[in-house]
Amino acid sequence: MIKFIEETVDYLKDKGFDSPEIGIILGTGLGQLINEIEIIAQVSYNHIPNFPTATVEFHKGKLVYGNIEDKKVVVMQGRFHIYEGYTLQDVTFPVRIMEKLGIKTLLVSNAAGAINLNFKKGELMLIDDHINLQGSSPLAFKGVSELGERFADMSAPYDAKINTTFKKIASKNNITLHKGVYASVVGPQLETRAEYRMLKIIGADAVGMSTVPEVIVANHLNLKVAAVSVLTDECDPDNLEPVNIDDIIAHASKAEPNMILLFKELLKSI
Question: Where does the record place a coiled coil (predicted)?
Answer without folding.
Answer: none
